[in-house]
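Notebook, p. 212. Picked up where the previous page left off. The plan for this session was modest: take the two constructs that came back from the sequencing core last week, fold each one, and keep the raw output in the notebook itself so nobody has to go hunting through shared drives later. Recording the first one now, exactly as returned: residue sequence, then the structure token string.
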Amino acid sequence: MAAPTYAQIMAELADWEANPNKRYITGPRLISLMKQYLNHLTNNGAYDPGTFMQQVVGVIGDFPNRFSSLSTTLYVNQATGNDNNTGTAAAPLKSLTRVSQIVNEKFQRVTVFVIGNYTLSENVGFNVEELYIQMQANCSFTFAKRVYQGGFVGETNFCVMFIGRSICLAGTGSSNIIVENNAGYSSGDLYTWKDNQGVIKAGYNNRLSFYETTVVFCVFNTIQIGNNASLVTGMKGLNYLDEKPRFTVDFQYINSYQQGTNSFINPFARRGIFRKSILFNNSAAWKTVADQTELNLETGTYALRLLLSTSGNGGSIFAGVFSGVFSWYGDVAGDSNSTPAEITLHSMAHNLNSKTIRLRTINTPNGVPQRIEALLNETLSSACLLQFSFTKLD
């Protein structure tokens, strides 16, 4: 293979410098070209101090300075910061809006340390590959409510709009996420309202995205989702590949969730969670888990994990883990009959006591939303919490 020329290296460097969003591709390629060029000079006895210093060391010597712009760390203090500051720990910024103005389309990885409590009272957009927001101990990140008039009339919450590969909100175990109650939908297009409900939106409004964005919440004491609020939604717009929002949601080390009336965690996610308290007071009776108005799942096939303990509700299951695979049709069906399809979930637990749980989907007639039901073969004295984690397989 012919060695690259100096002109090729400089052209690659120019491409790297002009296109920040491609640097995760062009950076390694540029380093490889420089190594090939150096080896060519050495192996062919073409080492000339002037040429070497000017053409190779000069490029390599300048590269770390340019490469350092791939990541940055900024500090924000809403109470005492100033958006004219430099964003260091000693001179923090005041707002995430100012952070976005500094970093968008300039950095690959951005870390933001939020000092003290923070209330988001304006929409803010980020266009970076990776965004990491770290909260302090015993502090809360609050998404304030707002009045909305557009495709619908009503209330929603201010949000972080993100286009990139991953956004992570991290606490310290005593930090909290709070999404304020809002009055919800009043009139207009209900689906537009749902689109605008997420306080984290995986993609800018009406922009095509080639990413499958991952949204991560980790190490929080409480995630509190108020009435009529949603935690994460996909972008309002189409994905170039399959005309669906493409995002997944992960939760790691969350002590508790609090959900208000008509609230959602992650509607239309390809990976996420769904939580529901159900009273199984008859071991032979199927109970409704949710219909499509609550689940908001795309059409497809899903792997499912269910965490369930009934030992505190008059039952005998302790730390039960159940799993299975099911299919779902996300649109309104036109069946003339109500058609159930049933599976028994595979189970392991600290203590199962021969208890099983079965799920079935109901393909409902006459435009009624599809639903999922569950059957547990024990009788409980109080409602137990079912936490479903799901991943779309196709």
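Okay, moving on. Second construct, recorded in the same format:
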Amino acid sequence: MSKKSWVSAADLMAELQQDPEYQKQQAERERTHEERVQRIRAAAEPVVHGLQSAGFAVDAVEELAIRYAPIPKPAIDILLSWLPRVQDDTVREMIVRALAATTEPFDGQSLARAFEESGSESLRWAIGNTMALAHPTGLAEWVLEAVADPASGKARETLAIATATLVPAAIACRTLPPLLEEFPVSVAQAFAQCGGPTEAALLQAWRGRTKGWQRKEIDKAIRAIQKRHGSAT
């Protein structure tokens, strides 16, 4: 490209700022963004008010995990009470992610229902992640069905790990191998928690099909299994 044809980013932006169509599009994007922010804020307001009334000094649902982790039971009860009532998927996801930051046991049926009712891939993925991290109760049979169902989509990434934490190890290890093709890293991470020599050998045989960060994660899982069982496999 010659010097005469070269245009800097600053020059290009200056040109765009003079373009009426660009200005119109930019204003529309800003308006849409502001409307979305206001919509989310309005949907989250009753949840935030409930937390504030219970003594939690937060101005947003996301602040709960930052200020109060591990989140105590009174806050968990408030979040669970609002999860089925909130209609906005973004706010529901905020609630679900906050629930991941607790060590208190809680009934997981609200999470299962939210998963089944939502078409949001992001919310479903977050629900699986919270199931894996928070260890909610009463979900063993549900998670076995959900992780095996192709309709669960990309959420099976996190549901695979939840299977290792919520289901007896022997059952989890029989359930997860069919997912290796689609979700090798998630299955490896699950086996790192529940697997034994058989699963380590399976991962060892599988690692040749992967490369880069996926192979590193599989190797890490193999080492975790070997360490837990006290010998190389």
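Notes on construct two before I forget. The chain has two domains: 65-167, 169-233.
Flagging for discussion at group meeting.
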